[in-house]
Amino acid sequence: MTEQAIRVDYIARVEGEGALKIKVKDNQITELQLRIFEPPRFFQGFLVGRKFDEVPGIVSRICGICPASHQITSIQALEDALGIEPSQQTKDLRLLLALSQWIQSHTLHIYFLALPDFLGYESAITMAKDHLTEVKRALKLKRLGNDLTALVGGREVHPVTPTIGGFTSVPSRKELQAIGERLKEARADALATIDLVSSLNIPAFERDCEHIALSADDTYAINGGRLVSTKGLNIPVWQYRNHIKERHIPHSNALHSYVEGRGSFLVGPLARVNLNMDKLSPEARKIAESTGIFPTFNPFYSILARAIELLHSIDACLELIERLDPQPEDIAYTVQAGQGFAITEAPRGSLYHSYRINDQGLIEEADIVSPTAHNVANMEEDLRAFVPSVLDLPLEEATLKCEMVIRNYDPCISCSVHFLRLEIERE
Amino acid sequence: MNKPRIAVYKMSSCAGCQLELLNLEPILLDVLGAVDLSYFVMARRDNEPGPYDIGLVEGAITTGEEIERLKKAREECRILVAMGACACYGGLPSIKNWQPQRVVESRVYENLAAIHSTTAYGIDYYVPVDAYLKGCPVSREELLEFIKGVLLGIRPYLRPHSVCVECKLHENVCLFVTEGQVCLGPVTTAGCGALCPSRGRPCEGCRGPANDANTVSLAQTMAEYGLHRSDIIRYFRKFAGMTPEFSKGAEAV
To answer: Contact at 8 Å (CB) between A353 and A77?
Structure first.
């Protein structure tokens, strides 16, 4: 009889605080826990009683890595509640803002959080000694994404211009075109990123699970669309709560997201490329198709999906910049009671916000489910299926491989309000 | 001289302030040539033990476990820095402090037995703090200025004046006076370059009270503009409601 334990007390290179504990007895997993010790901050709790127009600025602070996603999603949910239809210019600028954040966040994950695992370094800081070209490329791409976020949003972390009905100020066509030139140059860096990621040794590991993403007829869906899946889910956003539930799993002591009648699911770049490959920009689509890999249910290919989306993001930004000539717009609406829903594709996957407001414009109820909260049950399922394949490896290597399974999801633990239920149910 | 060793600690926060370190992209490699990021869990797997020269603490303190970690951070760091609004004065997590804790918790969680959340405070409620880098998020420029100051052994310039000063230097039209949009600029610490008002958005006070901030007078002006008492309270009890100055503003009318 042999007993083994894999423990990671503080998972590194993810955003937030989490730990992993796996116990194995006679090659059988006896215990597997992805424990989150990120302290709760109660956003959904303290939003109640706040004014509706404060919400985008407040929920931005759920996550410093994808603040624009929380802002855009909350704004669209509140506009749904108030019956506001934003202008085409506003929709375009919001898409540009979301894409800029994809560029920044995907670059951060590919080069700083994931790549060191594949190349055998503890961090991008030590990796820079041997791979300076790659690290410099990453810094350049990340700065470009950040500069675009700052141009549209006013600031990289926690943008200030997005508001209900539009933007408090808009960039000029000249400013957009200047950054457009840099985006054109950055296509080569995105292509080099795809080459680099394609050369990595991707572990062979497949697990059949449901992949979910927004999808639209005419575009690679980011700020709108229907929620669809590889197993036939196809619903409008407002029906989300009728189909996506949470439940208590006794063996892991966690509340997990699942599709009613089925099970855990995956959201994020891999699900999006699998479901919406034909809507990618022409070159991104060509590359995705030529790999012959997609659709795939190997979560380790998430990094390739992310690299392909990086190229798509740059292409989509260029298309928007080509036609945008933003002008100041008047924002006017009347406050009324109502309920609104929105889902957007944040860098890490589908992000759900819903609000009920009263006729004074005060929040009565807020419901927020982040991509990582959607993914946590699936991460555990992946680990359950994956761990037996690494049991013969030295403990240190097995531990690293398990961490890689988690990092595939680029988990953003700060974001995951519901994720926290994990810890609560333990005691 | 050895490179100063920096530790980055995460408490109850969004990770946005520590991301600002990585957002130094164009000069990040130069910064890494001047300092060692010895403990930085978001970016590294092999983190070195203390002692450290500089500890950058991100986030409010909202659990007993964080109090213990904070005390340990204080012991192992020569200079301890509150990085960002949450660490300086509680930040947005402090909004919950004015509602009954159990009520706030029950809106998010079903089983409250395992929730051990405390009143959200800035870190100086528990340990002595050597420097405050304000803002939500922290200003990259001020963060860099601070690191340079430590390297050179000089005191960094901390802005004592209000956002209004920077707003005037930008020659912005005053949103408060001309458009009637309530703005916390008159009582909020500068250093952001009046970012929000320059983009058509009133100041929300994320950088906390400026020196000699007259919040009572501002609250009275808000009332004259027709704001209800509950609105005025919301303005002050947001990023820095736990500070004495903003507390006074919230209770003035």
So the answer is: yes
